[in-house]
Amino acid sequence: MSKTFTVLLVLVAVAPSVLAQSPIFGQCGGENWTGPTTCAVGSACVVQNPFFSQCVPSAVTTPTTTATTTSKTSSSTSTTKSSTTTTKSSTTTTKSTTTTTKSSTTTTTTSAPSGTACTVTAIAQVSSATASCTSIVISNLAVPSSTTLNLSKLKTGTTVTFEGKTTFAFTDWDSDLIDIGGEDITIVGAPGSIIDGNGQAWWDGQGSNGGVTKPDHFITLKSTGTSLLQNLHIQNWPVHCFDITGSSGTTITGLTLDNSAGNAPNAASGGLPAAHNSDGFDVSSTTNLLITSTTVINQDDCVAVTSGSNITVSNMVCDGGHGLSIGSIGGKSNNDVSDVLFTNSVVKNSQNGARIKTNSGTTGTVTNIEWSNIQVSNISIYGIDIQQDYLNGGPTGTPTNGVIINGITMSNITGTAASGAQNYFILCGSGSCSNFDFVNVAITGGSDDSCNFTPTSGNFKCT
Ligand SMILES: *[C@@H]1O[C@H](CO)[C@@H](O)[C@H](O)[C@H]1NC(C)=O
Ligand SMILES: *[C@@H]1O[C@H](CO)[C@@H](O)[C@H](O)[C@H]1NC(C)=O
Ligand SMILES: *[C@@H]1O[C@H](CO)[C@@H](O)[C@H](O)[C@H]1NC(C)=O
Ligand SMILES: *[C@@H]1O[C@H](CO)[C@@H](O)[C@H](O)[C@H]1NC(C)=O
Ligand SMILES: *[C@@H]1O[C@H](CO)[C@@H](O)[C@H](O)[C@H]1NC(C)=O
């Protein structure tokens, strides 16, 4: 360890230009980071959060510190004064010491061009921050009523860090509360941070089916390039949580979506859970998406994919909702979904484990979908559900065949349904299901299983 360290130092002293440097917007530090900690000429290493430091163009970090920016930052961090020269030398001489790197880069963060608020503590600062900063900290922001937190046009390569508690005032309107968009963007939650949608102010047991006018989605995401959402803790969203539409190349990891407060009835919900239609992730017209290592506690679909391709959902814990779903498919602007994998996940206390629902009388395609290694427990309606008679407000009971379902794999799906539930329910339209491979599917505890289509291969027995 120390030997390598010495060699590194010598290299730095002898030929600094040869040593690997991170490119502008590249990573240069963070917990467990073993890559370069120096930045390309014209950029400096800025700590975005304990897990991620990034090379930010120096133009953004030229010290022209004003009294206001200095005092703002000094309340949240301990080091504030130092010059660019000090920063540079401290980075070079103490490469392996995270503490020093942190304090040196803190300095850089404080020194945005005058008039530019890269730390957003009031909604009025959002537009200038998104227009000019590639490193934005949303710090204890209280979003006022009739306002969307508009991060929809982030500059390419921007990192947004949520720290402290982000809150939203009530408005009876149907407008998203947070819009996020951009290319190569990184959205992270600082340790201990919470994004609280104040759902209690809207919840009336009716979700998007009636009652108070509500934001249909809490957060919209349209991210491209290579984008990352990490470690966000989100709670109490009004109706659906994420609407991911038109995204590509995005990884979502380490999120907690906790709507458990919406399980209890309230004065307006007539004995029903106060929160309703509270999907965790709604995905449409999206490609190359990975959602992983995420917990969703809610009252509707954990993940619902209605169109798009090459989507992987893994290492999920889904608690209290409607399971890992494809659909409902049909009657929308895009009705084709292919190459979706749900794997290595737990679905508990939920209406369904794995399901596909296609809308009655519509057209579309559902191709090459796999669920594998799913552990279910306390399922209250269907362990596995494939139904082609769906209508919001109640299935018709008569399947239609306009949506073609081809290539469904269920493998190693095990666990328990509650008594009164059905382990399996398959209701295909005439000729519209083909190539089902069900291997090692064993859900027990329910009764009255019903399947009008027998998987083409595997060892599945419906009853
Ligand atoms: C850093 O490594 C430790 C030990 O392997 C691990 O527990 C921790 O989660 C890692 N941190 C990150 C941010 O990956
Ligand atoms: C959000 O901000 C962007 C600029 O960052 C602007 O172009 C867009 O019109 C704003 N959206 C709304 C709904 O105001
Ligand atoms: C599918 O998406 C993953 C990211 O989740 C990506 O790494 C992979 O290259 C994509 N595959 C294709 C065929 O585009
Ligand atoms: C089973 O799940 C339901 C929600 O569907 C929940 O109300 C109930 O408490 C759960 N039962 C157990 C034993 O966890
Ligand atoms: C089956 O899935 C469970 C998770 O539900 C996993 O722990 C187990 O290893 C899987 N078994 C095989 C043979 O892959």
From TrEMBL:
Molecular-function GO terms, alphabetical: cellulose binding; polygalacturonase activity
Region listing for Disordered, in residue ranges: 61-114
Secretion signal, residue range per the UniProt entry: 1-20
Short name of any one Pfam family annotated for the protein: Glyco_hydro_28
Enzyme Commission designation: 3.2.1.15
Alphabetical keyword list: Cell wall biogenesis/degradation, Disulfide bond, Glycoprotein, Glycosidase, Hydrolase, Repeat, Secreted, Signal
SUPFAM superfamilies in the cross-refs: Cellulose-binding domain, Pectin lyase-like
Domain CBM1: start-end pairs: 20-56
Subcellular location: Secreted
Top-level lineage group: Eukaryota
Predominant location: secreted
Any Gene Ontology CC annotation: extracellular region
Catalyzed reactions: (1,4-alpha-D-galacturonosyl)n+m + H2O = (1,4-alpha-D-galacturonosyl)n + (1,4-alpha-D-galacturonosyl)m
InterPro entries: CBD, CBD_sf, Glyco_hydro_28, Glycosyl_hydrlase_28, PbH1, Pectin_lyas_fold, Pectin_lyase_fold/virulence
GO biological process: cell wall organization; pectin catabolic process
Active site: 322
Entries under PANTHER family matching the protein: ENDOPOLYGALACTURONASE D-RELATED, POLYGALACTURONASE
Membership in a protein family: Belongs to the glycosyl hydrolase 28 family.
Function: Involved in maceration and soft-rotting of plant tissue. Hydrolyzes the 1,4-alpha glycosidic bonds of de-esterified pectate in the smooth region of the plant cell wall.
Protein name in the entry: endo-polygalacturonase
Lineage, top ranks: Eukaryota, Fungi, Dikarya, Basidiomycota, Agaricomycotina
